[in-house]
């Protein structure tokens, strides 16, 4: 991998982001509800231009944003990453109409995006997903799916539970779905395997005009995942409190109607029907099955959904669809997770989709998923590096002043050596993340391998650093509300999201042997 160092302008931009996160984003995060979409926080990310920057920056800028935000406010980092993860397929593979309809609201924070890949029976083995997209013959002249043409922010007819027009699936004994008009609570994504060569490609958007200055004169006004998140693996979702898609220019802080996906009481089930797409005629399908561990579910306004259109074809029979949350038959529920992230399930009961909803090409959706993950995996590592640096800095300050055994803890060689090891591993992880992101931006070969290495090293390193920091702080770090208590819950998820550590090792080995068989030499 190439040697790497940041330019002074980039370092200054990172410092500016950390200050913004501490002064403007953390107070909003603290007012939110853990595990729920924080609409006020999303709106502020939009006003700062960070959501727009998701789609006009390269992979390195994405990593710098995620690392800097994670250092000062993990909730803001997660909100930004999940929004990017869910909407990047629309930006990269959507039609002009799809992009025009959704991206303005995504970038101002008034619409919430979800990435729906994982299923109860298809987590790490993402190519085994079974959500069915089944074709169905229709009479000529039939209209598109109900809800397909509703403009953003349009409410359902009075007295109709959103998402129930086609008889949504509900678990036995589940309470009735929420009625429109009930205000939401205010409050604060099974990983896939990577195909060799999928995803590299350099910068992924065209620059816009920024409100805040970024490195080299670029701005924070241009858009920049999580955990985060495994596009499907993640934290808590909030039942019944989704943000409706606001028309472009609408206030992102306006009172929001309930989510069409809110179906309280449902829990993930490994025996749920696989998600399939059943085409109606030549260009229409019905989606049937369940998605689980989905970022921003059930509160999202738009979902990038991966469904099987060709049974028995493995990764070559999957299609990506852009599914608005108000489609009949689409419901969902929140999941309570260890990490305070919005995560939930989505249930599809013959949800209608058409050719106008396809992202990319039919049966080529796995490439859409892998391309998105190859971009976001290094930035999951950046999220982890930001948390590791925060834990390291807290430990330096604590051990330098804590009196014990006739001196400070830093005077004890065993303590000083542990702090040195924390710093060593954090810096090594940071450099690998930056190198992988730069390789993506440059279109260099071996991006899947480098992305997997960066995510693996950084997330495992962050787990070690945070755990060691807790040990050196003692009982105070276990108290609810302490920075390290918060980081201890946050740091566990990235080792699973967007590809568990074991999957990353498999990707690395697969790429190494594939390269050797192709060239006769080790890469």
Task: Lay out the secondary structure.
Elements: H1 8-31, H2 39-47, H3 59-72, H4 74-93, H5 96-107, E1 113-116, E2 132-135, E3 276-280, E4 284-295, E5 302-308, E6 318-324, E7 330-334, E8 343-354, E9 358-359, H6 365-401, E10 403-404, E11 407-408, H7 413-442, H8 447-473, H9 483-490, H10 501-519
Helix pairs in contact: 1-2, 1-3, 3-4, 3-6, 4-5, 4-6, 6-7, 6-8, 7-8, 8-9, 8-10
How far apart lie the N and C ends? Answer: 10 Å
Q: What's the helical proportion of residues?
A: 25-40%
Low-confidence spans: pLDDT under 50, at least 5 residues? 146-272
Q: Could you say which structural class the secondary elements and strand pairing correspond to?
A: alpha+beta
Give the ordered list of helices and strands. Answer: HHHHHEEEEEEEEEHEEHHHH
- Given the structure, what is the number of helices? 10
Instruction: State Rg.
Output: 22 Å
Q: How would you state the average pLDDT, rounded? A: 78
Q: What share of the residues does DSSP label as strand, in percent?
A: 5-15%
Shape: globular
Largest sheet: 5 strands, mixed
Tell how many strands the DSSP assignment holds. 11
């Amino acid at each position: 991998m190439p040697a790497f160092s940041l330019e002074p302008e980039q370092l200054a931009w990172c410092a500016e982001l950390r200050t913004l996160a501490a002064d403007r984003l953390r107070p909003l995060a603290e007012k939110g509800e853990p595990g729920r979409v924080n609409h006020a926080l999303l709106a502020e990310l939009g006003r700062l231009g960070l959501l727009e920057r998701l789609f006009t920056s390269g992979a390195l800028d994405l990593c710098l944003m995620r690392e800097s935000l994670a250092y000062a406010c993990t909730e803001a980092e997660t909100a930004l990453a999940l929004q990017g993860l869910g909407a990047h397929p629309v930006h990269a593979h959507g039609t002009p109409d799809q992009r025009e309809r959704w991206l303005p609201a995504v970038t101002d924070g008034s619409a919430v995006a979800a990435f729906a890949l994982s299923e109860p029976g298809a987590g790490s083995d993402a190519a085994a997903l079974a959500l069915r997209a089944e074709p169905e013959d229709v009479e000529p002249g039939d209209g598109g799916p109900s809800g397909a043409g509703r403009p953003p922010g349009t409410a359902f007819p009075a007295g109709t539970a959103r998402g129930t027009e086609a008889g949504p699936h509900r678990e036995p004994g589940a309470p009735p779905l929420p009625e429109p008009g009930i205000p939401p609570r205010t409050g604060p994504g099974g990983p896939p395997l990577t195909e060799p060569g999928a995803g590299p490609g350099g910068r992924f958007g065209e620059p816009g005009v920024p409100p805040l200055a970024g490195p080299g004169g670029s701005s924070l006004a241009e858009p920049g995942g999580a955990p985060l998140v495994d596009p499907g693996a993640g934290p808590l979702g909030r039942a019944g409190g989704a943000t409706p898609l606001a028309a472009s220019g609408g206030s992102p802080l306006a009172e929001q109607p309930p989510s069409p996906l809110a179906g309280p009481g449902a829990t993930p089930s490994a025996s749920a029907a696989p998600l399939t797409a059943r085409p109606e005629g030549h260009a229409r399908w019905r989606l049937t099955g369940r998605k689980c561990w989905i970022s921003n579910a059930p509160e999202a306004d738009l979902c990038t959904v991966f469904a099987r259109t060709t049974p028995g074809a493995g990764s070559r029979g999957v299609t990506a669809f852009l599914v608005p949350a108000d489609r009949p038959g689409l419901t969902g529920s929140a999941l309570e997770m260890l990490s305070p992230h919005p995560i939930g399930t989505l249930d599809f009961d013959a949800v209608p989709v058409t050719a106008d909803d396809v992202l990319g090409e039919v049966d080529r959706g796995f490439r859409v998923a892998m391309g998105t993950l190859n971009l976001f995996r290094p930035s999951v590592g950046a999220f982890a590096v930001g948390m590791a640096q925060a834990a390291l800095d807290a430990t330096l300050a604590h051990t330098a002043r804590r009196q014990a055994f006739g001196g400070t803890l830093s005077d004890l060689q065993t303590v000083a050596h542990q702090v040195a090891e924390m710093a060593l591993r954090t810096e090594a992880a940071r450099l690998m993340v930056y190198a992988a992101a730069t390789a993506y931006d440059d279109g260099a070969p071996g991006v899947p391998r480098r992305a997997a290495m960066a995510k693996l090293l950084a997330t495992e390193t962050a787990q070690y650093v945070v755990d060691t920091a807790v040990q050196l702080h003692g009982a105070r770090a276990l108290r609810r509300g302490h920075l390290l208590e918060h980081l201890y819950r946050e740091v566990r998820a990235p080792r699973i999201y967007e590809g568990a550590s074991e999957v990353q090792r498999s990707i690395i080995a697969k790429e190494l042997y594939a390269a050797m068989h192709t060239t006769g030499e080790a890469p």
